[in-house]
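tl;dr need the bound structure. longer version: we got a ligand (flavin-adenine dinucleotide) that a collaborator sent over and nobodys looked at where it sits. i said id run it. heres the input, straight from their email, havent touched it
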Amino acid sequence: MFTVSGAGKDSIIGTQLGYGMKIREMFGRGRPLFSFEFFPAKTPEGERQLFQTLAELKGLGPDFVSVTYGAGGSARGKSVEWVERIGREVGLEAMAHLTCADSSRYDLEITLQKLQGKTQNILALRGDPPRGQKRFEPAPGGFSHANELVAFIRERFGDTFCLGGAAYPEGHPESDSLQSDLANLRLKVEAGLDFLITQLFFDNQHYFRFVERLERMGVGVPVVAGIMPVTNAAQVWRFTKMCGASIPASLLSDLEKAGEDESAVLQVGVEYATGQVEELLAQGAPGIHFYTLNKSPASRRVLENLKRAGVQRRGQ
Ligand code: FAD
């Protein structure tokens, strides 16, 4: 276990007590959670790389990992299988993402039945419109918004699953305003969410203001911060364009200076994310969710940096 000194209270990261546990129970331990997000591998080479990444990151003791569902064209059909394999073969609690895209209520119920016994944790999402389309169209007999999926899971499966949902500190790209997005987010939480994970952001002030607004609205669930250490300048442009996250001028200028030099870009991304996570933990964020893109070096280096900057193994 690691303790983060200078975080106000003695916060601890890095246990593997989470396997087979509901995430909402993990928040009660008085230290921030940390987790890694993966997408299901499609090819034998991708599978080899994913297992290697999982093995490397398991050593850092994440509380849980999560497996995306059809995100960015990834293999949706393989999500349930990967959730099961990560639990059985790697020994980590794998939260399953689930979206309403292309699924009727019946399809969703079948997938949820398959997930029973494989995970206790689901990230309940609407899903993005298919590439090239602006609007999300529900499948016949399906749902238009994540709050309907959350209500459906609670109605059919009661408390079998701990449920997380997505949150957008800079507003969801389809929303007219952050105000209306927050009102919709409240509906989703009231439908039965236990916690939220944010879209990636590079400016912590967006997160702090967002959490403050939720608190003022009486929405009291933990809001885990989604962090993506930049490893590739072109990729970050693509993601931020897609999800609407802004890039602060200082990060932009450092990335420009790094130019085409991949290791310099990685260095910039790791240093920047380290600073973000340090500040988030110091201000009491209940958890950090790393978007790994199935690679370990960046997240690993951020955690190593944190350790060097005052994070010590408990009992050492
Ligand atoms: P919703 O909560 O339904 O919100 C979507 C939009 O509709 C928002 O603008 C909201 O304000 C509005 N809205 C919500 N409820 C209502 C309502 N009742 N009436 C009117 N308007 C409403 N996508 C994938 O395909 N697979 C993944 O695995 C995946 N993982 C993700 C993980 C995280 C942590 C995050 C942050 C996002 C993830 N996404 C994933 C992307 C997500 O599917 C998209 O951002 C999607 O566009 C919105 O999903 P949502 O669950 O937030 O939708």
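gonna send this back to them w/ a short note. Residues 30 and 215 are 19 Å apart (CA to CA).
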